[in-house]
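pinging the channel bc i need a second pair of eyes. not urgent but kinda urgent?? the chain im working w is below, pasted from the shared doc
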Amino acid sequence: MPEQTTSTQSASPLRGRRILLGVSGSIAAYKAAPLTRLLVKAGAEVQVILTEAAAAFVTPLTLGTLSKKPVLTGFLRDAAAGEWHNHVELGLWADALLIAPASANTIGQLANGLCPNLLCAVYLSARCPVFLAPAMDLDMYAHPAVTQNLARLRSFGNHVFDSPSGELASGLSGHGRMLEPEEMMTELERFFGGEATS
């Protein structure tokens, strides 16, 4: 009996959760691979949505292999057959939408209700909690336009992870780094474990 209790207590709050992982165009997109692996290991069902820009940094094959689901990269599944990916169904299916990395471009689109791709359409349709992990260079991150867009997204009820300071891909050092996958897992488990305060 004690062994069963221990096993239950150690189970991740993400077990059985349906997570939409949106990956946008940033050098930090390569971290989507270990993030996907950690989510799956925790027992979550992960569906990855990859923007066209993100595919230049990480392949659908990599993320599809790790998530054990075909990666969605656009609205159309089979143009000749008229098959498409239903953003409304995806938004209703998910227990959480996590956009990591969230580039300055994607953040601007979401904050202003623009819908140029499947990820943005799913965001606008989602009824679940939304988490964003910004990733960009320090001057972009500090720009008033980005600061205002992040504030606006927070005002909509989205959870925006703060960017830690550190070395950036440009060689500069400062804020703009994407939160590490392990730290995002901690935040998600805290949220689904009922410990969230925001």
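so The chain has nine helices and nine strands. and The longest helix spans residues 144-155. — does that match what u expected or am i reading it wrong
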